[in-house]
Amino acid sequence: MHDGDEPVEAPDRKDSLATIRAAIHGKAARRREAADVNELVSDFGFLLVLLCVLCHQKLIIHRSVNATTRDFESSTTNMTFARLILAAANNEPVPKSKPFQLPSRPAAMALVQYYLDNVFALFPVFSETALFNALDAVYQENGRPVTDFEHWLLYMVLAIGATGQSRSNQDAFYADGVIWVGRALRYADRVLMPGYVSQIQALVLLVQYSMLDPAHFDSWQLIGFACRAVVDLGFHQDPPKEQQTDKKTLELRRRIFYCVYSLDRQVAQYIHRPKSLPGTGQ
Question: Looking at the 3D structure of the chain, how many domains does it have?
Answer without folding.
Answer: 2
